[in-house]
Write a structure and sequence with these properties.
This protein has 306 residues and is mostly helical. 72% of the residues lie in helices and 3% in strands. A two-stranded antiparallel ribbon has the order 1-4. Strands 2-3 form a two-stranded antiparallel ribbon.
């Protein structure tokens, strides 16, 4: 039982890293993206290929996977600059399906439906991480989750955060005030994709195998539910939403009744959560935190004067 609880916590942390990246896109900038699972898939398969075929060290593969996912974020961010709302959602959905089908059919690299097995674990100071020993993984992933959380927190509390909020509220007014809309949108997609790539890389290294159907549309919906449930534009709320969604999806296994509940129940659950939250509490359980930008600007001016 303890091992299973630790397993759930590990997946909560991995998904939290990815959902924080999506919250930056959806919550802080107001762009509806449905391809976060694709970025995780790119990161996972990049790590799998680099470590098994290229015999690359995990830490270099981790950075490379994040960079490849970030590059794909740029590639999807630039063509969709003029799209908003439903049109942007459909475009990102299409991108996610393209990534899934490329992974599924590029047999020479991804091994197609068979997936990639035997991915070695990372090594740190002479210690090799294995999926059997979960506590070392827990502390390692907590470190990266804290680093991701603080990076986004610093970004949101800077001028970048003020620009993103302006874009979310009114793009035309933000552009009239001199904010470079294209630069910030592409930057946000790149950062969100990088977080997804890191999460996918950790997913592959911990699971020691990857399969193409893992990173499907339903995973993107699940990650979106994590962001919406906690509260858009609130990093702490996103982590809380991730905890609730992962526990809810794993509750049948935790209670030992997974043989009674059909596998499609998760899809029904995620759909119900999205509909319920949009109707009755669109701000999420915790809701958005309104930052006091006036005080932040005064503090910044005082810091510059010193």
């Amino acid at each position: 039982m303890l091992d299973f609880i630790l397993l759930i916590v590990i997946y909560i942390i991995i998904y939290s890293i990815s959902s924080l990246g999506l919250n930056l896109i959806v919550g802080y900038t107001g762009m509806l993206s449905l391809c976060q699972a694709a970025f995780m898939g790119i990161g996972a398969y990049s790590t799998a290929v680099l470590m098994t075929a290229g015999h690359m060290d995990f830490w270099l593969a981790l950075l490379s996977s994040g960079a490849i996912a970030a590059l794909c974020g740029i590639l999807i961010g630039i063509p969709t600059l003029r799209l908003r709302g439903d049109y942007l959602a459909i475009a990102t959905l299409g991108f996610g399906e393209i990534v899934k089908n490329v992974i599924l059919n590029w047999d020479s690299v991804t091994k197609g439906p068979m997936g990639i097995n035997g991915i070695p674990g990372p090594s740190l100071f002479g210690y090799t991480f294995t999926s059997m020993e979960k506590l070392p993984w827990l502390f390692l992933l907590l470190f990266f989750l804290a680093a991701t959380y603080m990076l986004i927190r610093v970004m949101i509390r800077s001028r970048v955060g003020r620009a993103l909020e302006a874009i979310r509220e009114d793009e035309i007014a933000a552009s009239a005030m001199g904010i470079n809309i294209a630069k910030y949108k592409v930057g946000v997609f790149t950062t969100g994709a990088f977080c997804g790539g890191l999460a996918g890389s950790f997913f592959a290294a911990y699971s020691q195998s990857v399969a193409p159907l893992t990173f499907d549309f339903m995973m993107s919906i699940m990650i979106l539910c994590m962001v919406v449930l906690g509260g858009l534009g609130n990093s702490f709320a996103t982590v809380i939403g991730t905890v609730l969604i992962v526990i809810a999806s794993e509750l049948p296994r935790l209670l030992g009744i997974s043989h009674i509940i059909p596998a499609q129940m998760n899809q029904i659950l995620f759909g119900f959560i999205l509909v319920f939250m949009m109707i009755y509490r669109p701000q999420g359980i915790i809701g958005r935190i309104k930052l006091n930008y006036g005080k932040m600007m005064k503090d910044e001016i005082l810091h510059m004067e010193r």
